[in-house]
């Protein structure tokens, strides 16, 4: 009887052990997925290239093992390029578990508004499109600028004007727009240091008849060039007005003209120089490799938003993988102490501003913006 009980006990142990092992095998083959939140005006037509850049980077990250050995999936969130909607979206996704870095938004005002929401929920915000150096201020903790700052781009723009012998300029920006005001302020600072005089500053685009008054004033003051930091519909209006008033001055524009397609009169295009940083005609290096991969994936040449989306997604993954953690403080430490290989080369953060992206001027060639041959090499600083 004892022998029979012993056999039954042994069988019970074997069966229970087998069940335990079966459970262990199930756990080891199970794969988890990490959700990454991306916020942009995805309902707008101009957002497609940005989305393509995110998707391409996500596929590459997964092919390389994911983030901390977890495959990633992208959670696309549409903020409509509207500050109220941006706040609603940020409030909703800030509490999402999983990946602690959010990628977005498109507008400077939106990023400055929602940064504190992510910070309060122990998340970081990587801003791929805006250029505001205000992100380094104490009241904007947790938000990282993943593009050259307004200061870096203004430095390049003014240096390029000086190299072309321009000493008197008029500046135009959109009324009430934070990015435009800040960019023009940086232009003024660099212009003063290089002896370039700003003869007029305009933040209001009236009707065409009144705009003629501006042009006559610029003529009388000897303005040799116009600097534009207009955004949105003001970009289209400005160039229409300049064409209709017979403008022949060069126009130095901020990079916002590259973020989406704007209707610009053909006669104006040969006068425009755009401060930019993505070399869409690169034939060697990381930029060229990205261009080739993007063309193979989508049959199109990537633009600046595509490159920024691609770079920022990879940057977020690299930061977490180097930290070997999804803890915010561990990732912040890695961001502060390391450089990262990107589509633009080796980059690092100066506080929370990216540094190391070369800034240069682009001109229109066959309706495409391409880098000027004689780059000045300025504008590399983060702030």
From TrEMBL:
Membrane in keyword set: no
Keywords: Amino-acid transport, Signal, Transport
Ranges annotated as spanning the membrane: none
One annotated GO biological process: amino acid transport
Leucine-binding protein domain span: 43-350
Keyword Signal attached: yes
Superkingdom to which the source organism belongs: Bacteria
Classification via PANTHER family: ABC TRANSPORTER SUBSTRATE-BINDING PROTEIN (PTHR30483:SF37), LEUCINE-SPECIFIC-BINDING PROTEIN (PTHR30483)
Similarity comment text for this entry: Belongs to the leucine-binding protein family.
Protein known as: ABC transporter substrate-binding protein
Top-level taxonomy: Bacteria, Bacillati, Bacillota, Clostridia, Eubacteriales
């Amino acid at each position: 009887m004892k022998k029979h009980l012993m056999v039954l006990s042994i069988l019970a142990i074997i069966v229970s052990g087998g069940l335990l092992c079966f459970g262990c095998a199930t756990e080891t083959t199970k794969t988890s997925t990490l959700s990454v939140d991306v916020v942009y005006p995805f309902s707008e037509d101009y957002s497609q290239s940005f989305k393509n850049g995110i998707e391409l980077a996500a596929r590459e990250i997964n092919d390389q093992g994911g983030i901390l050995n977890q495959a990633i999936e992208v959670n696309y969130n549409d903020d409509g390029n509207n500050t109220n909607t941006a706040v609603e979206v940020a409030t909703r996704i800030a509490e999402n578990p999983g990946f602690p870095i959010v990628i977005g938004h498109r507008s400077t005002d939106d990023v400055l508004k929602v940064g504190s929401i992510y910070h309060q929920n122990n998340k970081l915000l990587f801003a791929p499109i805006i250029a505001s150096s205000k992100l380094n201020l104490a009241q904007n903790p947790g938000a990282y600028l993943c593009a050259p700052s307004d200061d870096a781009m203004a430095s390049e723009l003014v240096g390029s004007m000086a190299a072309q012998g321009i000493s008197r300029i008029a500046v135009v920006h959109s009324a009430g727009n934070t990015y435009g005001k800040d960019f023009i302020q940086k232009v003024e600072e660099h212009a003063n240091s290089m002896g370039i005089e700003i003869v007029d500053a305009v933040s209001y685009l009236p009707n065409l008849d009144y705009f003629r008054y501006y042009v006559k004033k610029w003529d009388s003051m000897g303005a040799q060039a116009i600097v534009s930091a207009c955004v949105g519909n003001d970009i289209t209006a400005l160039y229409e007005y300049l064409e209709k008033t017979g403008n022949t001055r060069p126009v130095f524009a901020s990079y916002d003209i590259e973020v989406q397609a704007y209707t610009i009169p053909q006669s104006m295009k040969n006068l425009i120089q755009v401060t930019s940083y993505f070399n869409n005609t690169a034939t060697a290096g990381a930029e060229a490799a990205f261009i080739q991969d993007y063309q193979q994936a989508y049959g199109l040449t990537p633009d600046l938003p595509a490159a920024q989306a691609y770079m920022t997604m990879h940057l977020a993954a690299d930061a977490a993988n180097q930290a070997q953690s999804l803890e915010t403080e561990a990732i912040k430490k890695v961001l502060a102490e390391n450089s990262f290989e990107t589509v633009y080369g080796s980059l690092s953060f100066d506080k929370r501003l990216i540094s190391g992206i070369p800034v240069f001027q682009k001109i229109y060639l066959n309706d495409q913006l391409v880098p000027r041959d004689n780059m000045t090499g300025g504008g590399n600083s983060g702030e």
